[in-house]
From TrEMBL:
Transmembrane segments: none annotated. Keywords: DNA-binding, Transcription, Transcription regulation. Residues 5-59 form the HTH lacI-type domain. InterPro entries: HTH_LacI, LacI/GalR-like_sensor, Lambda_DNA-bd_dom_sf, Peripla_BP_I, RNA_pol_sigma_54. This is LacI family DNA-binding transcriptional regulator. The keyword Glycoprotein does not apply. The keyword Phosphoprotein does not apply.
């Protein structure tokens, strides 16, 4: 008489508990990738077929995705979230959005809350204060599917989707140089963020390629990424107080760019008369600003879509995924007020 292989048989053969085998077969994130692979490989080898009735009772997928961003009101993130939702809802997943407001502590709490809600996976863009990613690494090591977008953690081996920050920064800086500016400052977010590192690199490369010296006094970091007006204002005042003050600023962030324009307005600095500006921004209201600014626009909607497609692939994979990709999408330079 035919006797189907059971979870108990697999557990006995591998020296594991039945609950560990059951979780590995259900692909839950409590089990380490190594154990999961061992169980799945063995199950495949012996032709294990799950009981569909038992499986439907045990299926614990929440059909929800957690999203961690700094701020929904940020034009870039609101567009990325639209991209995320366009894929998720089509595929039957709910989206739970949380904001860190550039706070590491809030990021930790948000990530833990989403994991405790049993989301099937996380889409993460790090806060500007995040230095330690152990809260994410622990969940990733336990098998929770995770994809990073925009601000990524290089140490975690998973899919990542970013814009070509270096190229975008290079083009914006080169545009300022071509417009006749020689003393170009750089206002950016916290130094450890992946986007800050990449954009600084593009800025420096453009200066070097055009025979201009990189001046450390011209590079200013805002640890809160433009969320605090006073912080942006104090960095701009530091630049204005220099003996040889800059004649242009390349700003490396959406929130920082609009914040910079507000500071200029309040300090009665005319653009581009007193100071030219080019920045990263996806804001559609830039055309209404007077003065406006030349901006590097990121394909935020496409980044959100692609990150979600990659996450759902991880969530629905029958076997542990071991090969990961880093997708880099092109930026566009929108020239205003030459």
């Amino acid at each position: 008489m035919f006797e189907p292989v059971t979870i108990k048989d697999i557990a006995k053969a591998l020296g594991l508990s039945t609950s560990t085998v059951s979780r590995a077969l259900r692909d839950t994130h409590e089990i380490s990738p190594a154990t999961k692979k061992m169980v799945l490989d063995y199950a495949k080898e012996i032709g294990y077929q799950p009981n569909p009735i038992a499986l439907s009772l045990k299926e614990r997928r929440s059909k929800s995705i957690g999203v961690v961003v700094s701020e929904v009101a940020n034009s870039y993130f609101s567009q990325a979230i639209n991209g995320i939702e366009s894929i998720a809802y089509d595929r039957g997943y709910h989206v739970i959005i949380s904001q860190t407001h550039e706070s590491y502590d809030r990021e930790v709490v948000n990530v833990q809350h989403l994991a405790s809600r049993s989301v099937d996976g996380l889409l993460v863009s790090l806060s500007s204060q995040t230095n330690d990613i152990s809260h994410l690494k622990q969940l990733h090591d336990k098998g929770l599917p995770m994809v990073f977008f925009d601000r990524v953690a290089e140490e975690i081996n998973t899919h990542k989707v970013i814009a070509n920050n270096e190229k975008g920064a290079y083009e914006a800086t080169a545009h300022l140089i071509r417009s006749g500016y020689k003393r170009i400052a750089h206002l950016t977010s916290s130094s450890q963020l992946s986007i800050s590192i990449e954009r600084l690199s593009g800025y420096e490369a453009a200066l070097n390629d055009h025979g201009l010296t990189v001046n450390a006094d011209y590079i200013k970091h805002c640890p809160h990424g433009g969320m605090i007006y006073e912080e942006t204002e104090s960095k701009i005042k530091e630049l204005l107080a220099l003996d040889e003050k800059p004649d242009a600023i390349f700003v490396a962030g959406d929130r920082l760019s609009t914040g910079c324009l507000s500071v200029f307005k309040n300090l009665s600095i005319s653009v581009p008369g007193d100071m030219a500006i080019a920045g990263f921004s996806n804001s559609d209201v830039l055309d209404l600003f007077n003065p406006s600014l030349t901006s590097v626009r990121q394909p935020a909607f496409e980044i959100g879509k692609l990150a979600t497609q990659m996450l759902i692939q991880l969530i629905e994979a029958k076997y542990p995924v071991e090969e990961f990709e880093k997708k880099v999408l092109d930026t566009e330079l929108f020239v205003r007020n030459a």
